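Design job #97: recover the sequence.
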């Protein structure tokens, strides 16, 4: 029996961002699937990273969920080799450093994101971000 192929980490990340956004807007897998013309089981596979999301489908998902396509790649760990610093770069390359986020139980992250998205006052959202960053900085060794 052949071993099961493991999902690509980027596909898993994109899927988790899809699930996060879908739950933030209060949409079910079934409703998203209906709008995409796929079954809710297919949406589940996308969210787990078991099935890759094609470019045109990702663009459609972004439209349905009212986010830019780049949203799905935010905070993704970049596994690309270190760039050659002697190479010329055009405007499309992003030379910012990548970072790995610590693992937070997804239920807690989703609950926080849902609650945060319901806050309409931008000043309060900014204060919450500042508070969380301050608390997190106090946790560092």
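Job complete. Output follows.
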């Amino acid at each position: 029996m052949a071993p099961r192929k493991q999902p690509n980490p980027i596909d898993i990340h994109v899927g988790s961002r899809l699930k996060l956004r879908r739950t933030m807007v209060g949409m079910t897998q079934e409703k998203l699937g209906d709008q995409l013309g796929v079954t809710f089981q297919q949406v589940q596979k996308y969210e787990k990273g078991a099935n890759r999301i094609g470019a045109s489908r990702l663009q459609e998902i972004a439209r349905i969920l009212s986010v830019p396509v780049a949203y799905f790649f935010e905070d993704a760990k970049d596994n690309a080799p270190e760039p050659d610093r002697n190479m010329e770069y055009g405007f499309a390359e992003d030379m910012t450093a990548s970072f790995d986020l610590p693992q937070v139980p997804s239920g807690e992250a989703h609950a926080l994101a849902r609650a945060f998205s319901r806050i309409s006052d931008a000043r309060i959202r900014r204060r919450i971000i500042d508070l969380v960053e301050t608390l997190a900085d106090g946790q560092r060794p």
